[in-house]
Write a structure and sequence with these properties.
disordered C terminus, alpha+beta, 27 strands, 39% helix, six-stranded antiparallel β-sheet, single chain
Amino acid sequence: MNGCLVFFKRLLLGAGMILPLNSLLMEFTTRACASTHCDPIPTWTHVLLVLLMPAAIFAPWMARRKPGTVWEPVGAFLHGAGLFSSILYVLAMGPLNIAGLIMLPFTPFFVLGGIEGLLGFPLVLAALGPLAALVAWIMTFVNTRRQLAEKKLTTLWRGGLVAGLLLAGVAEWRMVSVHEDIRDALRAVQWQEGDVAKALPKLRTPWRQEFLLRLCYTGGGAGHFGPLGHLFDRGLIRQGLSRLGDESIRTGSFDRETLRALYFRVTGSPFSDVPPPAGVIQMREGFRMVEDERFETFAWDEDRGGSEVGARIRGLSMQSSRMDWHVDADSALAHGEWTLEFHNRHRNAQEARCQMLLPPGACVSRLTLWIDGEPREAAFGARSQVTQAYRQTVVVDRRDPVLVNMAGPDRVLTQCFPVPPGGSMRIRLGITAPLDAQTPAALFMPLIVERNFSIPAAVKHAVWVQSPQPLEIAGVWKDAVATQNGAWTWQAEVPQVELAKLNFGVKQKPLPKVWTTDKLAGKDQPVVIVERSPAPATDSNTKRPVFVIVDASAGLQKHAATIRGALQKLATQAPLTIWASTDGEALEVPVAEIESHLKSANFTGGRDALPAFKAALQRLRGSTTPATIIWLHGPQPADLSRKEVIKQLLERGSAPPQIHALELEHGRNKLLEELYDAAPVFGGLRWIGGCADELTATLLNIHTGPRTITRVSRAATPPADGKEVWDQLARHAVFREVMAVFQGRDRVPEDQAKKAAAHQLVTPYSGAVVLENQQQYDRAGLKPVDAGSAPQIPTNAAPEPSSLLLLVLGLLALNRRRR
């Protein structure tokens, strides 16, 4: 009997030392507890608390085995320090203690479950780690107390007890503090109950920013705030939050989208642009991460089929990118095809989503999806029609669709599903772009500004550009131009970070009059005529008041000096009013104080431009003089505040201003998208960096208006003068016509939507979708484009011989054959 008792005691002592270490190891590798109950190790201080549990048993045991050594004082101190750690985690585990005890007798049968059963065995034991440590501590307390009295180490033991209590208190107070700081910041930002300028700086410390980033992926459930985090859901702070209408904030939990918006306000960076903290994927998915190492994890995508790009999905990546462009100086147009291939390492199908920034003034005029190795062309229809068809196919049918819709000025949202498990998916976008959207004329490359997939550093964009006329390439790419067969061609593999700087110009000016036959217009006036002439000199534009809104976010900090210099020069040539966005209300910046208010140090966090827009529009309410608002901005990837007041001022104003958005740093901008729904917001400009003089010239071009007037007309027969050019002229003429009457996506003119869809264009009113079979098209009331009518890249960039020359050569060849 005594032998069994001794064995049982030794078993409990061994469990008190080994099981807490097993708990720590399992949590590090699977994050199973964090994904289902609470996060036991949110900080390294908590890791130390867990290690104290086995140390409190092991050190006294070594002291008994080696009396008279350093183990005696160490054992006394660590034994006292481990008590509160064990109590803390036993309380934290709560009902899991009982569940673990119930499952314990059945753990030997886990071996019958194969590899998954063997992995489940240590997972059950992990739940019992703190309880085993506490039981072992109590067992050793009697012997340790006697030994302490004999060795006069009681004071040291008490010191360890106090140290353990302080360590647990510091660790948990840190979690309570960050919870309260997040709550206060959300109250100030979302509900205007507090001082935003005081609440946000509290979160601008490295640890708090990293913790907030972790919550952007896991969500802000109370359990993520440490071992005792679920106490936030037990009403301890509910009285102080009773005035809030948001249930998640009132109960101590925070919505994931709300936290993502807050992360931007605190740091100035979209959460998806920052690598996730270590272990965050496991925290979301728990023990499922070990199901199949070949595909890393079984990944869930909360945004599938929706209109949000969402978080990066591990294992989903862009495998290749190819751009082919044909540039025609006569018509001042370019047409490109961007072919993208996505690869998925997961064991379940994934949706690839991204927002693309098109060249200034460009539109999507073709969409292709490869199904079973064959290219399938898209159907074009009303925006709501193609979106509904895509979601039906993704969510219900789970088949092969791809969707492109316009998301803002020069921006489209591209979605494709499914990228198969361990496989790839290939799509192609056709893009028609004007060369004269800004001065000097240039072709810029399309960019991906937000994505839910990774772009490996080894993947580069294979870019090919051809033109019958000489090309000009700025920067490091200048020497890459070559001529071939009388045509100008250029080819290179461009890294992702360099793509934004790549642009092409043409030395030849566009012809003053060109025409083409619109093959999609029917028989009624099929000839499209475009005439260009210099804009008449006038002083009316130069006298228009200019309101400049400066996004003082951290992302624009490197441009601060350029912005200051450009605004100081612009103030000498135009009536100028400046507002700078801050953490709180907008700051009106007098011209004389530009230098002091727009210093680099003032660009911090992610600033909300909405108060500045509100101030500018309120100032214009009593004015009948048309004004220009220029927004110098970077990314604003989150919903920052209520926008209805801005929409109201834009919709009801008697003299709505021209709003021009000039993006200095690329990225998604949700405020820009919201404004685009309510008013015509002009993009059509691309900034690639430069000095203050270059930014000043760009701002003046916006202020004074275009230097060339472009007139588009239609006729039944070709004109006697002018040159015939390719049919891209007709497509882009229809796009210009649609955008000329654009007053916001919320106002949909049916005739313009039908005309855009008939001409195979993606506009604010129309979109493109590729479905898998004819049955799906019939159900959606859509008809796919005939591949023969889709725009093509010419196979040879050399100038085509005239029809007369071809006829003469043919007759000569025929005459020679007869001889």
